[in-house]
Design a protein that fits this description.
With 539 residues, the chain is an alpha/beta fold. Helices cover 41% and strands 18% of the residues. Helix 10 links the parallel strand 12 and strand 13 (333-338). It is a single-pass membrane protein.
C-alpha cells in the first residue's frame, strides 16, 4: 500500500515540474481585405516546427499552442489563398520568448513581439490578366518603325531640299539626271495626279513659283529667259577596264578549284571518302586532293602538261587523278586502266555520277576507265604523260612498263613514286629526273615522294598516232562524247550486276572474255608458300 502511494506522488511531482517549464505560443491572424476586425474569417491551419504540432485559428483569427517546452520553433500558416511570413520562436529556460519574422525567403530577419501578429502580405495570384492591344505597343514595334520611317523620310527630304538647293543647281541636276520633277514623282507615288503633257507641267511649275520667295522666282525666270549663261555639263562616260592577266589567272584558278571541290564531293558521295576495296589485291593508295593538285601544277610548269596532252594512269583505282587532270589543266583525254575488277567497278560508278552531274557535264574533258592488265600492252601509244602510283608494282611489271615507254614515240614524261636508282638502273627507263615533290596519302596520312622524269631521246611526233590494242576499246568509246561514254558505263554496270543469268551463262560469258581482260590471281605477282609444302617439310 505504501509503495503504491509513493508511485502516485512521484508521477504527480514529475507532471508538475513539466508544466512549470512549459509556455503557450499564441497569436492572431489579420487579413488585408478585412474592414471589420470582428468579422468572422475562415479557419487557417497554423503549424509548429514543420508539422510537429498544428492547430486551427478561431473565427477572430486567434490561435494558441499550449504547453510548449523551451527550445527553438518555427511557426507557419498554411493556406493557398494568402501569403504569410514565417516566424522563428526561441523559448529560453526562464520562459523568456524571443520572436524573429522572415517575410520572404532570403530576406533579413526582423524581431517582433509576442503574442504574434500575423498579417497577410497579399493574395496569391494564380492567373495573369491578358494584355490588351495598345497603340503605343504598335508604335514601339521595330517592324512598324522600319515601315513608317522610310515613308516619312521620302516625303520630308524633298521638301527640305527644295528650300536648301539653289534653283539653278536644282534645274541643272534635273537636266543631268534626265528625270522629271521629284515633287511630281512623289505625288505620283502617294496618289497625286501626274502631268500628262508639257502644258500640265508648265502650269504646275507656275503654280510652284507663286508659292516661292521673290528671290527664287527671279532666279527661275533668269534660267527660263537665258539671261544667265548656262554652263554645259559634260558627262565623262567611263568604260570598264579589262582585268590584268594576273587577276584573270587568279579568277580562273578560283573557278577551277571550285569545280575540283565539287568533283571530289560527287566522288565521295558515290564511293565514300576513301574507297578502294584493296583487300586481296595489290597495294592500293590514294593521294589527297591538295597533293594531286600540286603534282598537276608541277607537270604544267615543267612537264608540258596542257590541253593537248593525253594522260594515262596505270592502276587508276577510283579514278581521282584522271578526273582531276580532266579539269585542271583539262587534258585532251584522261585514260585510266585498272587490274582489280572491284576498283574498276567503283571507277565506273564515279564516272557515272560525274557525268550525271549537270554542273560538271560541260566542264569535264573526256575521261574513260577500262579493265585490263598493263603487261598485255605492247606500247603506250598515244599517251604523252604516264602517271602511276607504283609503290607496290612488281619488278617485272615495272620492267614491262619501261619497255613500252621507251618504244612509244608519244610518251615523253613519266611520273612515278620510285627513286631514280630503281627507275634508271633496275627497271631500265631511258629518262632523266626533272624534280620531286612530297605528297600525303588520304586516310593514313603517310608521306611519299613523287618523281618527275622526262625521256632523254624524244622521237618526233607523227600526225598518224596509233593506239595500242589494249586501249582501243576505250578510245573508240571516248571519242564519241560524254553521252556515248555514259551509255557504255551503264551497259558495263548492267552486265556485271545482272541477276537474271544462270550459272552456265556466267561461265560461258567468262569463257568468251579475252584472257587479257580476266582478273589474274595473286600468285602471278607474288611468290606464295602453300601450307601443304610446309606440312610436308615438317613431316
Amino acid at each position: 500500500m505504501a509503495m503504491r502511494f509513493l508511485t502516485l506522488v512521484g508521477v504527480f511531482v514529475c507532471g508538475l515540474l513539466t508544466f512549470v517549464g512549459a509556455v503557450n505560443i499564441e497569436g492572431r491572424i489579420y487579413l488585408p481585405a478585412a474592414t471589420d476586425d470582428e468579422a468572422p474569417m475562415s479557419p487557417f491551419q497554423v503549424v509548429l516546427d514543420g508539422g510537429v504540432r498544428s492547430t486551427l485559428s478561431t473565427a477572430d483569427g486567434h490561435f494558441v499552442f499550449h504547453d510548449v517546452v523551451p527550445g527553438r520553433y518555427t511557426v507557419d500558416v498554411y493556406t493557398p489563398l494568402y501569403m504569410f511570413s514565417q516566424f522563428k520562436v526561441d523559448i529560453s529556460a526562464d520562459e523568456n520568448i524571443r520572436v524573429l519574422e522572415f517575410k520572404y525567403p532570403g530576406t533579413g530577419k526582423l524581431p517582433v513581439s509576442h503574442p504574434l501578429v500575423v498579417e497577410a502580405h497579399g493574395k496569391i495570384q494564380y492567373f495573369q490578366p491578358r494584355e490588351r492591344l495598345s497603340i503605343m505597343d504598335l508604335v514601339r514595334n521595330p517592324s512598324f518603325l522600319a515601315l513608317v520611317v522610310p515613308i516619312v523620310m521620302v516625303w520630308l527630304l524633298p521638301k527640305l531640299s527644295e528650300g536648301m538647293m539653289d534653283p539653278e543647281e536644282y534645274k541643272r541636276a534635273q537636266d543631268e539626271m534626265g528625270t522629271s520633277d521629284p515633287q511630281q514623282m512623289l505625288r505620283g507615288i502617294f496618289g497625286g495626279a501626274e502631268a500628262k503633257d508639257a502644258e500640265d507641267r508648265k502650269n504646275g511649275r507656275e503654280g510652284m513659283l507663286e508659292n516661292v520667295s521673290p528671290r527664287k522666282r527671279r532666279l527661275e525666270e533668269r534660267v527660263k529667259s537665258g539671261k544667265r549663261s548656262k554652263k554645259t555639263v559634260t558627262l565623262n562616260h567611263t568604260t570598264a577596264k579589262p582585268l590584268s592577266d594576273k587577276r584573270s589567272l587568279e579568277l580562273a584558278a578560283e573557278f577551277i578549284d571550285h569545280d575540283v571541290s565539287s568533283l571530289y564531293k560527287v566522288i565521295h558521295k558515290q564511293t565514300g571518302a576513301l574507297g578502294g576495296n584493296a583487300a586481296g589485291g595489290a597495294i592500293y593508295g590514294e593521294i589527297t586532293k591538295n597533293s594531286m593538285g600540286r603534282i598537276l601544277e608541277y607537270m604544267q610548269e615543267h612537264c608540258e602538261l596542257g590541253r593537248d596532252s593525253v594522260f594515262l594512269d596505270i592502276g587508276s583505282g577510283l579514278g581521282k587523278p584522271n578526273f582531276h587532270a580532266s579539269l585542271a589543266p583539262g587534258v585532251a583525254v584522261s585514260y585510266g586502266i585498272e587490274l582489280e575488277d572491284q576498283r574498276w567497278q567503283l571507277s565506273l560508278s564515279n564516272l557515272q555520277g560525274v557525268l550525271k552531274t549537270f554542273a560538271l557535264y560541260s566542264k569535264i574533258n573526256p575521261v574513260i576507265f577500262t579493265h585490263g592488265d598493263i603487261t598485255d600492252a605492247k606500247t603506250l601509244e598515244p599517251f604523252s604523260h604516264v602517271y602511276s602510283f607504283d609503290v607496290g608494282f612488281p619488278p617485272t611489271v615495272m620492267a614491262h612498263v619501261a619497255n613500252c615507254f621507251n618504244q612509244s614515240a608519244s610518251a615523253n614524261f613519266f611520273i612515278s613514286f620510285h627513286p631514280p636508282r630503281k627507275v634508271l638502273e633496275q627497271y631500265g627507263f631511258k629518262v632523266e629526273e626533272l624534280g620531286r615533290l612530297p605528297t600525303s596519302m588520304a586516310g593514313s596520312k603517310e608521306g611519299h615522294l613523287v618523281y618527275f622524269y622526262r625521256k632523254i631521246k624524244r622521237k618526233a611526233d607523227t600526225e598518224d598516232k596509233r593506239v595500242d590494242p589494249l586501249f582501243g576499246v576505250g578510245f573508240q568509246v571516248v571519242q564519241e562524247g560524254h553521252d556515248a561514254v555514259l551509255s557504255w558505263v551503264e551497259e558495263q554496270v548492267a552486265k556485271r550486276f545482272n541477276q537474271g543469268r544462270t550459272r552456265r551463262q556466267v561461265q560461258m560469258a567468262k569463257a568468251a572474255t579475252p584472257t587479257s581482260l580476266r582478273e589474274k590471281k595473286l600468285e602471278t605477282f607474288y611468290k606464295v608458300v602453300r601450307r601443304g609444302a610446309l606440312s610436308a617439310k615438317a613431316k
